[in-house]
Amino acid sequence: MAAKIISGNEVAAEIRAELKERVAELKEKGIFPGLGVVLVGEDPASVSYVTSKAKGSQEIGMFEETIRLPADVAEDEVLKVIDNLNKDPKFTGILVQLPLPEHISVEKVINYISPEKDVDGFHPVNLGKLLRGEPCPLPCTPHGVQQLLVRSGNDPSGKHVVVCGRSNIVGKPLAAILMQKAKGANAVVTVVHTGAKDISYYTKQADILVAAMGRPQAITADMVREGTVVIDVGVNRIPDASKKKGFRLAGDVDYGPVSEKASFITPVPGGVGPMTVTMLLYNTVESAIRLSQQQ
Question: I want to staple 271 with a disulfide (CB 3.0 to 4.6 A). Which of 8, 113, 208, 222 is the partner?
Fold first, then answer.
């Protein structure tokens, strides 16, 4: 029997509707969430992401401003812009769109953002709080994965979650989120990667399998047992002459054959992708609440 599809588009729309209500309620109390986005250069993918963040902010009734800087801007200038955003109370969330040009240090830029306004959840202070189970902005893609699981009726509590991939953006923070003794977490988590002699030894034990390896169709049907919940975080471009753009998008999971064995599965596109921007909006709203409580 084919797997049930977990639609990221549907779950994201549900969360955005909730956020729209919350933003309206907060405004009545004099709390105004605001997102400041810094875009360096004109990378087409980055421009597309930033546009979607602006549209999402507008959709939920939240203030958003994008500061565009040329690709050859000096690192000090970028830090000055961040410093201004840190000090400006109308911004409750700050996002610097990655990747950055090679002459600008990503670590320095991320570390310069005020932890209270770090809506990407990448600041070392927030990552430390995440590991300790303290309230903080959660990294958007892993938080989106958690929401997909919970809202599709696949609560990870007590389940064996196998995360394939150990990146700082997805694998590590997702493991930290799901292992917490908390609602929507409390899972037994295994993290596997290319250092494993046989990845399938671990993936076959998963109740919930998360593929975040950055390799197209790396998870094949023989690596998945019947009834597993499969979350595909990967977005890979595969050459395809039949497509207008000359490529198609594929996940880290061999979707067709795996969907015949899984109980639930996320598609690519339309699975985890729409959740990332939505959780960024969520973090900006949450940050506004936390900052208002500090005043």
Answer: 8
As a whole number of angstroms, the distance between CA 47 and CA 206 comes to 37
Please report, for the chain, the start and end positions of each structural domain, with discontinuous segments joined by +.
30-114, 140-272
Residues in the chain: 295
Determine how β-strand 63-69 pairs with β-strand 34-40.
parallel
- Tokens 């911004």, located at residue: 91
CATH topology of domain 140-272: Rossmann fold (3.40.50)
CA distances to 34, 93, 268 from 288, rounded to whole Å, are 8, 8, 32
User: What is the rounded CA–CA span in Å between residue 1 and residue 259?
Assistant: 9
**So what's the pLDDT on residue 295?**
67
Tokens of 207: 């109740």
Class of domain 30-114 (CATH, top level): alpha beta
- Active-site option among 117, 118, 120, 207: 120
- Directed axis angle between helix 8-28 and helix 44-59, to 10°? 50
Instruction: Using pLDDT thresholds of 50, 70 and 90, give the confidence band for residue 291.
Output: very high
Q: Is the pTM of this model over 0.90?
A: yes
Q: What is the mean pLDDT of residues 103-114?
A: 97
d(CA 236, CA 71): 25
Active site residue 222: no
Q: CA 283 to CA 294: how far, in whole Å?
A: 17
* pLDDT reading at 61 higher than 90: yes
